Amino acid sequence: MEFRYIYRGLGVGLLGGLLAFVFARIFAEPFIQDAIDYEDGRHEAQEALDAAAGLAAGAHDHGEVFSRSVQRNLGIGVGMALFGLAMGGLFVVVYLIVSRRYPNIRPRVLAALLAGAGFVGLYLVPFAKYPANPPAIGHEETIGARSGLYVTMVAVSVVALGLAVVVGRWLADRVGTWNASLLAAVVFLVLVGVAMALLPDYGHLGSNRAEFGDFATETPQPLAAPDGTIVYPGFPADVLFRFRFYSVVSQLVLWATIALAFGQLAERIAAAPARRQAQTAAATGADRPAVAEPTAAG
Amino acid sequence: MTTPVAQSRQRSISFPLTARRAALGLTALLSLLLLYFIGVDQGATSLFGSDTHIHEFVHDARHFLGFPCH
C-alpha cells in the first residue's frame, strides 16, 4: 500500500531537513549574522550621509517581529524541517509514480536517482542562475519580480528535466543506455541554458538599473560620499561565498539523506512481502507484489 | 467481477479516483502548499494581508534555501 511509502518519504524528508538545519546552525548562521551586521552598519553609514546632506532621516525602522535569537535557532530550524518535509512529500509522489512505471529499477537505485534529480532540478540549476543571497542582499522593491523569476527558473528546470528523461527513454532503445543518458543530459543543459540566457539578471531589472546602475546582481556596492570617498565597503565577498557554499552543502545533506534513508526503507518494504511469500512457498514469480496490492486494498 | 470487455470500456470513459491517486495528489498538493508558505508567502504575495509573522519567523531559512527575500 502506498501509505507505507508516503509516511516514510515524509519522515526521511523531515529528517533530512533537520540534519540540514543542524549543519546550517553550526556553519552558516555566523555568516548570516555577519550579513545582518553589515546591513545594520551600512544603514547607519547611509543615515550619516543623509544627515550630512541635510536630508531627513529615512524613517525606515526595522521593527523586529521575532528576535534574532528566535530566527537563528527556532525559525530556521522549523523552516528547514518543514522544507525537508515538503521535499520528502514531492519526492515520494514521484517515486511511487516512477516505480510503478518502471518496476525493474531497484528501490535504492531509483531513490538515489530521483533525489539527485530533485537536488539538481529544484535547487542546483535555479541556484546557478539565481544563487541564494544572505540578508542585506536584495532590494525590497524588486521582491515581486525576483520571486516570479526564481519560481520560473525552478519550473523551467523541472520541466526540462522531465523532457530530458522522456528523450533519454526514447533514445535508449536506439543508441543504448549510456549514449541516451549523455544525450538526455545535453538536452537538459541546452534547455536550461537557453532559459538562463533569456531570463534577466536580478540587477538588470528596470528599477535596479535606474537606481543603482549596470550591475548583474543586487549585491551592495561600496557606499560613497558625494566627494567620492568610500565611507562603507561593498558586501564582503568571503561572507557571500561562505553563505552560498554552505547553502549548497545543506541541500546536499537534505537530498543525500532522502536518497539513502528512503532507499534503505523502500528496499525493506519491497523485500518484506517477498520474504513472506518465500516462507509460504507461494512461488508466483512476482517480484513486486506491491503492484498487485492496491487492487486488493481498494 | 466484471467481464474483461466491460472493464476496458469502464476504464476508457471514466476517471477513476483511486485511493492511490487521491493519496498521491493530496501529498503533492500539501507539499507544494507548505513550500509556498516557507518560500514565498508574505514576501511577494501574501495570503494573510500585510502580516509578516511567517516571513520573519522562517526568515533565515528562506534566505538559506535560496528563495528571494526582502
Brief overview, please?
The complex is a heterodimer of chains A (298) and B (70). Chain A has 298 residues and is an all-alpha fold.
Describe the structure.
The complex is a heterodimer of chains A (298) and B (70). In chain A, helix 1 (2-52) packs antiparallel against helix 2, helix 3 (107-129) packs across helix 4 (143-175) and helix 4 (143-175) packs antiparallel against helix 5 (177-198). Chain A folds into two domains: 1-57 and 68-137 and 221-298, no CATH class; 139-218, no CATH class. A two-stranded antiparallel ribbon of chain A has the order 1-2. Chain A starts with a helix and ends with a helix. The longest helix of chain A is centred in the first third of the chain and has 51 residues, at 2-52. Chain A is built from eight helices and two strands; from the N terminus they run H-H-H-H-H-H-E-E-H-H. Helix content of chain A is 73%, strand content 2%. In chain A, a hairpin with a 5-residue loop joins strand 1 (223-224) and strand 2 (230-232). With 298 residues, chain A is mainly α. Chain A has helices at residues 2-52, 68-101, 107-129, 143-175, 177-198, 206-212, 237-280, 293-297; strands at residues 223-224, 230-232. Chain B has a domain at 27-70. Helices cover 60% and strands 0% of the residues of chain B. Chain B contains four helices and no strands. Chain B is elongated and about 45 Å long. With 70 residues, chain B is an all-alpha fold. Chains A and B meet through helix 1, helix 2, helix 3, helix 4 and helix 7 of A and helix 2, helix 3 and helix 4 of B.
